[in-house]
């Protein structure tokens, strides 16, 4: 499996192929045909930037039956789409800012698809061909505003509400990956991607029937049960088998 990252280098953000302790810098994003420039630097986790620059972040709600049930909702008959703005992206190790408008912000650890090809109305049977790789995301949600607003743009869209990373991993089989979320070392969520209501190929096919998917776009695939609050000073860790661990801290805005 190959892992890619985006690193904060002295000359700006650079995509890189991670090879153990070394990072091989690329001339552009790997899903845009990036190739190694020959520059090899030590891999430094402190340099990790958000590993993608998507034109859009599509998300699916209630895609795990037990999570739908824990919030008193039924599983939808077709994927329930919403989106988060690119301005909500947060780098690994960054700080989720709790907005003063909400009294209840929650974590939703999720597997995220990174699109590798421009597609529109791709069939489910061939949808996996347009996947570049997979990464980890947290669909941070102001649960009180989600309920009071009725629609979800504000509740899901605050700045820093979409931590992503640390890597984009190519070659992972997404059909049965464990997802675990812990806050301050205590486990909150422990699910598996095999529990998804709509699988990866069906989600891509359905989304591409709505809008053109571009290389580097992100699709968040829903969260397993166990969502819970994020409080000022918390440290949250989202781990997915084979993809590593995404960590962030929580601070009042
Ligand atoms: Zn979610």
Notes on the structure:
- By secondary structure, the chain is mainly beta.
- Helix content is 11%, strand content 41%.
- It contains 4 helices and 21 strands.
- The protein has helices at residues 65-70, 143-149, 153-157, 200-208, and strands at 2-9, 12-19, 22-26, 36-42, 48-49, 57-61, 80-84, 89-90, 95-98, 105-107, 109-115, 131-138, 141-142, 162-163, 168-170, 178-183, 186-192, 218-220, 228-229, 235-240, 244-252.
- Strands 1, 2, 3, 4, 5 and 15 form a 6-stranded antiparallel sheet that branches. The protein has a 5-stranded mixed sheet with strand order 7-6-18-11-12. The chain has a 5-stranded mixed sheet with strand order 9-21-20-16-17, with no helix packed on it.
- Strand 2 (12-19) and strand 3 form a beta hairpin.
- The mean pLDDT is 97.
- The structure holds zinc ion.
Write the layout of secondary structure elements.
Elements: E1 2-9, E2 12-19, E3 22-26, E4 36-42, E5 48-49, E6 57-61, H1 65-70, E7 80-84, E8 89-90, E9 95-98, E10 105-107, E11 109-115, E12 131-138, E13 141-142, H2 143-149, H3 153-157, E14 162-163, E15 168-170, E16 178-183, E17 186-192, H4 200-208, E18 218-220, E19 228-229, E20 235-240, E21 244-252
Parallel strand pairs: 6-18, 8-14, 9-21
Antiparallel strand pairs: 1-2, 1-5, 1-15, 2-3, 3-4, 6-7, 10-13, 10-19, 11-12, 11-18, 16-17, 16-20, 20-21
The structure holds zinc ion.
Zinc ion binds next to loops.
